[in-house]
């Protein structure tokens, strides 16, 4: 059974691919003719030109890219010992995309020189930064993943700002971001194959030491493997593979995550067959998707690009596979951020007073001081107090949303013992976004109330999915996170499809997505305040659970807790907090990730203190971000969520460096 | 004597026109959508505020926004506090920015005027759109003369177009391998139609009149390729190297035409501008 399953699956995929290729070639004038076009272009026949300059190169590019991404995925997951690691988790794709945007806007001559070089440089610099941030911890898997995640968020935030400010100029890049495999010659194939081949060969050389990483860290060390060097080489190879693909055809989601995951599911444990099977699976999966997409009718094909489609198709597959995925328990104590800070700080009264005071002074200052039509103005001097009517609701909303996201983030991070976790990561925010997209594009509603309802339905569906897929495993943290990753991948896919279609409606969507307090009115504040008060107090009531759960299931059970029920309740609470906050400030505000981290870097680690500290930090961060966002590029507004992730990201990187 | 007379005449003309403008008190309007801005300007209304002025100047180009018009920031999120300070009497938006209505209507009455709708973009729709905007700003007379002069210009231009001009394949490059091809329901299509020309793109287009396709899909389409600038960075060099693109242009039987940037989603002013640029380009090519 274990032996035949992989072969059956691969054979099935191969037959499907061959069938699609065969019917296409037969339709365009016979197999003989088609294969002749592979080797020689007959310039007299437009059919032959089409086959030999677009169709064949596309097929080979797809096969190569799929294989390369799968190998990159296997390497990353092996080195980082993390089933969620994939080329996109580490920020390589977003770094490449960011560098392309910068070049398009500020150095167009670079784009004319070599687009793939720009993307490659961006990907490599991102990985360099990840290495730099995690170097002192010998490239420890957790630190590498966090550093990658932070950079990912950082670049995505910056890219979204650039995109909002220059949507017309960057619309071409959106197609690239959705991964279109259209080819007009053999350039990409000749660029890719020697490089990919070389990288795979080097990777095969390192298979033996890599498989030792399956053992524990100390085990590998005692066998005389230089961990740092090994990680450096393998991560480097994965980055190169990804960057080459990203640079030549664009961002292709999910293959790097799905192919290794399926391979693992098929029960393949040894590394060599894992690499080979993943490679074949990746190539076949991508090619199958691409061949199917080429058969779509015109109107649909216009908005569906392959890279985003693989992500959209792969996400449900991932959700389906999840219950079957055996995840090794990461020991909860391995979480870096608890490890470096063993002594417990108690939150002193004066610290609370200080932070609260800062919050109050900041609020008054931000409400009264701002750029206006004629430069900087302070309301105390010009007496134009009527403007407060516009400013106060936004500041209050930012503050409340910040607090709620911070509490939600603290709960999820403590619950999962995973420093990557946050409301954004478990997929609730993405669910809201998908709901919103459907409402906006199906024409069900375009008013604000309609959008809110759409978002809420999306959030509830995702929460239902999380519960449905995880109740059997007792809401095991890694599994919940994986669910979130799959849902987020789906959202990203839908989002890049929409942006690539060039539909001018994507403006409104992007504006909301970037997390702005723009739409807040005084009437929305009361329900928001009630929700905050209610949900945050529940959070504090349950803080004892948050102290016990990170100690591990056994300890919690021995203390008489019903582990899965308390996990479910906490999860539900975090979800409600996120929905309330996200409906106001959008799904991308990353405060839920940043605030708990920052609170920890201050040194608070007991759950109650952690909650207080992170909600104060979260509130302050959002308050400052909202105000800054309105001043930075006046009269253009940078959404608060974007400013928050740019500010918080800087601090987090500084903190990582100190770890 | 003669000189004094002409001087007097000139003076009286300036005086009366000045008087006329003063009498028809200018309404303080703000416009978010660029199509509305271009139409308002063509009607002689100077908005006190418009969104993303620098980008308007790069993509719409003409009619130019006067320097006293204040920049409102992004079209998706025009700066509310700045709008409050400007105290407009009316704010124009299009359905694309409908989600702004609750906020903007706290500042001034909001008028939502739609232009680009599926299967409904035509010269007639452009005229109705202009008239609607004119009515809301009390510029009916200006609208009438704008439409008349536009139609007269288009008629003159259509006579200058050589009769044997092939159908046009009008496109804008997104990157080196993808284009927006404009067909029915598009501004470029309408301009061509008014000149008595045909579009070579018969596949279905979206609400805004274009299909987004890879250039491999253009193979076999017979027609004159018209590329509307700007070309994204690096695309031009790429196309020169691309054997497939060279073949594509060759098989149409006509050299590629390049047209300076014209706003793809505009109304009458952009249509006339495109028609003029297109006629010039065709003329130069046929010479």
From TrEMBL, chain A:
Subcellular localization, as worded in the UniProt entry: Cell membrane
Gene Ontology molecular function terms on file: transmembrane transporter activity
Keyword annotations: Cell membrane, Membrane, Transmembrane, Transmembrane helix, Transport
Family matches, as InterPro entries: ABC_BtuC-like, ABC_transptr_permease_BtuC
A single cellular component GO annotation: plasma membrane
Entry superkingdom: Bacteria
Main localization of the protein described in the UniProt heading: membrane
Membrane spanning residue stretches: 55-76, 88-111, 117-135, 142-164, 235-259, 271-293, 299-322, 351-372, 392-412, 424-443, 449-468, 480-500, 525-547, 568-590, 640-656
Membrane topology: Multi-pass membrane protein
GO biological process: siderophore-iron import into cell
Pfam families, sorted: FecCD
Family that this chain belongs to: Belongs to the binding-protein-dependent transport system permease family. FecCD subfamily.
Protein name: Iron(3+)-hydroxamate import system permease protein FhuB
Native species: Marinomonas spartinae
Gene (name only): fhuB
UniProtKB/TrEMBL annotation, chain B:
Subcellular location: Cell envelope
Domain of life: Bacteria
GO cellular component: outer membrane-bounded periplasmic space
Domain Fe/B12 periplasmic-binding: 28-286
InterPro entries, A to Z: ABC_transptr_periplasmic_BD, Bact_iron-sidero_bind
Signal peptide: 1-22
Main location: other
Keywords: Ion transport, Iron, Iron transport, Signal, Transport
Gene3D superfamilies linked: Nitrogenase molybdenum iron protein domain (3.40.50.1980)
One Pfam family per UniProt: Peripla_BP_2
Matches recorded under PANTHER family: IRON III DICITRATE-BINDING PERIPLASMIC PROTEIN, IRON(3+)-HYDROXAMATE-BINDING PROTEIN FHUD
Listed name of the protein: Iron(3+)-hydroxamate-binding protein FhuD
Annotated source species: Marinomonas spartinae
